[in-house]
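TL;DR need structure tokens for one chain.
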Amino acid sequence: MQKIATLVPTWLMKMLYYTLLYSKICYGILVWGTTGVSNYDKLIVIQKRALRLLENYKGNKIEFNSSYNFTKHAILKANQIYYFKLLQAIYKERLYETNQDRSNNRYTFRHDKRRKPSMRTN
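>> reply
TL;DR here they are.
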């Protein structure tokens, strides 16, 4: 991204960010989300570097206001991506339902409607 940052428009750089970086962050974010702060810091540093390329910023890294630019371009930080994906998984798997919500039926059925999540370890 760094070599072509001056050659392409901003909308294309944003599209490159989402294809090259955001997709890789989202791939394993539910696993990485339970790690320490140092791993989040590494991801946020990479995101800030991409944001500086998106803004075509050539000045001092410390003077760059990244929080304003994250909101300007509507880009989520790594920890926000983790919470977003976690809430999506909770909603998709209906983990918010309790047994009381499902036990309103008078009859017992052979199969429970709630699908149990399967986890892969490899």
